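Quick one - first record:
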Amino acid sequence: MPDITPSYGGGTVWASPPLSENLRRNDGLELNIYLNEGGHYAIRLGYTVTGSSILPPEVSIEINGVYQFLEAQRVTLVQYWKYETLDFPLNRYGDEVLPSQTILPNPLDYTLRDSSSLFRQPLLFSLEKGENTVKLTLLSGEITLHSVEVLSLEEIPAYAKPGADRPKGDFITIVEAEHPSYKSDTTINAIANRSLDVVPFDTYRSLLNTFGGASWKNGGQAVFYEFEVPSDGYYCIAFKYIQDSKSKMRVFRKITIDGAVPYKELESYPFDSSTVWKIETLESDGENLELYLTAGRHTLGITVNVSVYESVLMTLKTMISQINDFALQIRYLTGGGNIDRNVEWEIEDYFPGIDETLAAMREELAREYSEASRINGNEDSQELTSFRTAIMLLERLMKAPDEIPKKLDLLVGSVGSIVSELSVALNGFQNMPLTLDRIYIYAGETAPSFKRASIFASLWEGIKRFVDSFKPARYKAGGSDGSVVLEVWINRARQYSDIIQQLVDDDFTPRTGIVVDLSIIKDEQKLILANAAGKSPDIALGISNWIPFEMGIRGAALALSDFEDFTIFARNFMPGTFLPFMYEGKVYGLPETQDFYLTFYRKDVLGMLNIPVPSTWEEVKLILPELHRNGLNYYIPIGGTASSKAFMTTAPFFFQHHARLYSEDGLSTAIDRKEGLEAIREMTDLFAIYGMPLQVSSFFEHFRKADIPIGISNLATYVQLMIAAPELKGLWGLAPSPGVAHGDIERWQTGSAQAVAIFGDTAHPQEAWQFLKWWLSKETQSRFVFQVLSTYGLEYLILPSNRFAFEDVPLPHEDKEAIREQWEWLQEVPRSPATYILEREISNIWNRVVLEGRPIRVAVDDAVQRINREILRKMEEFGYVVNGRKVREYEIPDLEKILAWWSE
């Protein structure tokens, strides 16, 4: 395929001989390059993607033994995708759904660019006259490398109107935008639009009739359309589009023909915001831009281009970094915490030249604001409003710099601060959504047009849809042919359930003949009510991990461990996840999704302070004084806003100290034993003595503004950082959570998320078990995660509990390594009929010791009495105690017992 990416022309000054290097992760290749003249050159790779990951391959480039700039340490290669069919499949309602996507197998030529596509030019490497060594290392993915070229670059020519004697014709071809030939990203997709102005349209069915929208907004995301013209000549290109996501904000696209930008005007072509569908013909200086095309097949490329704001974006990134560093130094100066407002600061004594520094920052921001306004064509967008607000706040601080220590929130507060407003602008300038309906390639004087629907036509369509909503369902009822029908209730959002139903209809039902009807429930209590009413489903998906036990102990759930092949299938999951599902030696549920609790840390802040990432709680205690001296702190989930501390926040301390939560017979608690007291002392001393924050409303926000640069959190924070904090890209990392040294460091943490169960009164137990095995299998879970991410993006990331399916989740390798290592220490809380009182009283112990200052022994003794009293009451309810006397032991599951059958 032609080079899809360069914005610049230029010749090849060096080319490797034909290669056939099969590269996998960490494989490298060194080439000796000889040049007649030194200078700055681009590098183009020819390769074929041979891996199957949803993430594109990444490489690093060393020139003569060094990385010449940060971007060279991790360069993302392109990887193209195509729909398996453009005849979109239908779901059981008759609505169009996205087809599967496959990696384009064609060889590619790609000129290396920065991974965020912020720079207008490709990456330019400094090469010396004579011999140079280029080392290429594959960081992720799998490719076959075919060639390496060194390119000199030349500017793209400006458009010149062809002469009057140019060949003329009369021709038009229409390309439906929802039918791309291929694209750079699985997440940019055809979408449904119910406007009457869109083609095709159906009153009663949802059609995938447009392309892009909010999914097509990030720099470098590209879509390609192949088309044919009948003869040599000059042609115009027009787009039918709408851009109503960002009011008063232009978005930009790079337009290529057969892999090259033909004219400078098409390198960053603007599309103005529009709340209605309109047709835009590519133009230059108010006249249609005519492109010379030879007869035959061509490829039109349309790429999101944020590099039009290159200087603006780089300035914003730099300013955010500088202000964060300045705020950190202020915290170091003042000791952080609550600033004494009676102290008078002479800020110049500590920061010589502060007035000039702030003035220079203000001048640079004002210059880039003017540039951004010029590019956008107005000053009224949300991005420019935030930009302007940040400058005004800076001017406010400039008037009284000695007050800056008292007004630190104006610098880096979570909302309404300078950093916050600059981050809004930074994110906004990189967010360029556009929705396409049709593309027109035409020759002649008549421009394409369409008849806009009247308000009366729109009203009539609405009435027809309203009336149709009262008619019977459009799809055939499941099982009408006599096949088994499983009723499955799912506690998930519509986006997930639609994909699950599609997978069922495409794979499970054709394979087994078993029909599955999914129903969404928004309240898990409906499961209990349905069971009491005798109207329970066959299977429940997406439920909390405590529900299978509560159902099992009441005879409402099927014991999955009774199935003959259960033990074999159970090895797909981490052994510690089974603990909450067990009752009297049997397993009543399976884990569906997994969470994690990892250390999140700011590389920039810890690096500046020379603070290592701790591996044990003792090491955490050692770094806390240094953090406090700089006005910083460390977060653990006990310090969240909730007054009730859930087991997920307290139980890990007991596990790490080898403490039991229950006695051996399950009829009393064991938290008052030596190991339990050590665990309680650890988790309370961190707050009462070592000064961890008692209430943190949002670890993400504090982590973002760097006053809590390290802490323990989960998948939700991970997704937030990946999506909502682009300014922190490369500045944070993951590590396993701290633990307690018992020879090895034991890092036990909880981590289960959602679970599945089969109801005890199902009429189809074998079919239900067959469905669960299919649903939780590596193949189905891998496909499900792929479909979710490719359709909705990283915002909807879930981690499958199937440990083999997790290997296919498209996350950065370093992050997966940290998650994988932490999951080796996954242990959930075993349950008993009175688990709720144990969880509540451990929380109360923490509150009484930390907030009320009570002695640990006193708080524990009081709690133990209440716990044991409630345990006996519940054990009487379930027949383990009669008239205050034990009649049988309650078996508390433990990890060793699970490992005995899990590892057989």
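second record:
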Amino acid sequence: MIHKFYEAINQAASRNIIFALLVLATGHPMAWDAAATEGNLVGNRPYFEAISGSLHPVKVITLRDIELSGVKRITDLLGRRAFNNFGLQRPFVLGGSRTLILINGRRVSDSGVDLDAIPIAAVQRIEIFSDSTSALHGGEAIGGTINIVLKKDYKGLDIQLNAGRPRGEGADSEHLSVLWGTSVGEGNLTVGADIFRRDEVRDADRDYSRARYEAGGSFADTEGVSSLGNTVFVRKSDGGSVSGPLGDCDESVYTGELTDPPGGFFGTVCGFAYADIAWHLWRRQNDSAFVNFSYPLADAAEIYVEGRVTKEERRLLYAPDPNLFRLAPDETLRNSLIESGNFEGLDESNFPERITVGHRFLGHGNRQWDSDLEEYDVALGLRGNIKDNIRYDGYVHYNRWDYGEDGRTFINEPIINAAIESGDYNLQNPLSDDERHRAAIRESSVRSEEKGKTEYVDAGVELDGPLFELMGNRIRWSAGLQVAKEDISFSEENFNLSGEPVDADDVLGGASLSLTADRRRLSAFGDILVPLGDALDVSFALRHDDFDDVGGAFSHRIATLYRVIPNIALRASWSGGARAPGLALLHAEEFVYYPYVCDADTPTSDCPREQVRVVTSSNPELKPDEAESFGTGVSAGWGPLSADFDWFRLRLQGTPTTLSTQFVVSLERSGRLSEYPGLSVTRSDGRLAEIRNPLTNSGETDMDGFTARLGGDLKTDLANFMLNANWIRITNYERRVGVETQPGDIPRNRIHVLLRADRNDLSVQWNTHAVTSFWNSTRTKRFRKWVGHDIALNWRNAFGFNWFELTGGVLNVGNEGQSRPGSDEDHILYTDSILGRTLFLTAKFGI
């Protein structure tokens, strides 16, 4: 599927199957002090012991925040960072590939992490480091780090049952989790299991996505309808263009004839309502289990084991394949078209020898993808103290991720074209029961098979401790060494119904990607915190990664914190980091995909878009890119109130990238392709046929902005009230390839306001989140603003039982729908907007 390519561009196609990495979190005013008492991590060690953690802006999603959120998947929980929930959009402003996600302070692999493989029942808290941590974790952490901390040292039994019911059809969900922990001698064993189910959402289930049309009406007034039902498009010798149905255009199958065809044609089209069939949210089920075991070996040492296993299954459905192709009609078809009267001005004397047909292969059936993945993760470690208060943590870690996807029903283009030419395939009636027609369908049917695997092994040791005193305070240090090896493979193959292989180039709209590669890495880092009196701290951190394929990558960070008075502090940081290109970008074979583009110098909102074959190949000469981050901020507190303001500037250079397909078309039409070596455009009969778009270290991104937060904690006789209001503003955003600015945009403002009230055993929470409007990818239309509201109620010791707790509420109270610039776009922004208003209820039993 096409999304695999874009994931490969971001990091490694076989690993990054997440459609979104997004964040929900909460913090405390003056976060450098409050967070330290919660034992946050940098690497595998408590960051307040590891020195410069206090100079990182840190926020925490607590267990209570998770339970009040009403969501039961890590992907959905973090997915709400699109709204800047709790001010945590900041780490992701450059995209997920520039935010490192850790589990218990460790990488899952160098290729990324599949958030769907993490059971939410296992999560104790989520820590967000919104400033660059590249000097500790590498260049991919230039935007920040998210550390997911799993539960441990638990005693007792906890059972949770949850159900979610959206107002619209589809997406009903159920969740069951069990957590059990007990003492094992002086140690602890904590185990848990997590089961999640969610139904699909179909386009027809939502007002904004269902098909809208009226038989005999205008195509311009339709939504969720394609002109490629069964339509003939003809270019006349006088330069005019006319279109009409191919066959009867039965309204029980198609939309019936529609006027005002796209692309400047005169006549009608036979449309097809693909939105009556397509899904836009997968059906999924996840089964997970985890274990945490720790046992003291001596007074100053502890052995620990951490393990996870996950199995996930998903399904997605699309309407049957469409195609737009050239055809020389036989005499019977030619006469039928002329006699229909749908092609004004054409008769036997001037009817062209070749026509263009937009056809939906209904007889082949709907396209369907069934995927499954399994992930296994285990770590064995030893931690403790040695003399002079030096702490150590040594570990060995293994992760395996297996992915498979079976797709059907696709079409062998050369075979179906031959069947059309011979008359075996009934082009006018794709649902014909004629045996020759059915045989042509069987012979041209194709199924796809994708397989991916990642194996990652790493081992490391990390130390931290005090040095000598300076100006009355002790200098602290940390250092670490890590070795890692990763093997990845990914393949996509196609087969006919007899099991014989089919070339990807022969599959209608098919894509291909093949990859087998490995990488070894040796990393070392050091960090030192120098307190210059009681008011000023300065930290220095360095990291070097040595890769066996692309050489070295160096990262650094200098940060300061100045306490002006006890309630006001200033901070600043400068970071740099180099990120190695993903293995897919270095070693994958040619990747083919078929995006829709407008064949014009400058695309407009009404420009017709057609699919074009695009070929992108890997580049073994790619080098690590470079990133730089500047930040400065102030935090202040006045009694129950607190405020933070941070300005940031991010710069990326030499990122592996390709030009946008639409931009390539504009270059070709303006005669500028020669300015970009390796870039080419091929046309057939004047129409776009193929684009070759190579990967190079030519990408650049500039981003500037600021974040602001206002918080408050007020205790009264009525209740305890909490306020947390956050705003992120992007003041400058530009993405370039070479010197050419690329189209596209992002929301410039994201706002989140939370109000919570606690009284005795009751808590009520209200969330408001908003995203301002922004341009679509071609800057022809704007997505409208999006504002949503949630409410949740928590009742502890429900009905007087101290072992029973209820949490319920409504997500997206206003039933705010999807933000889309127009019917020709299908841009899913937020899971909340897809689900619509959703009621949820969680029952928790603790023993």
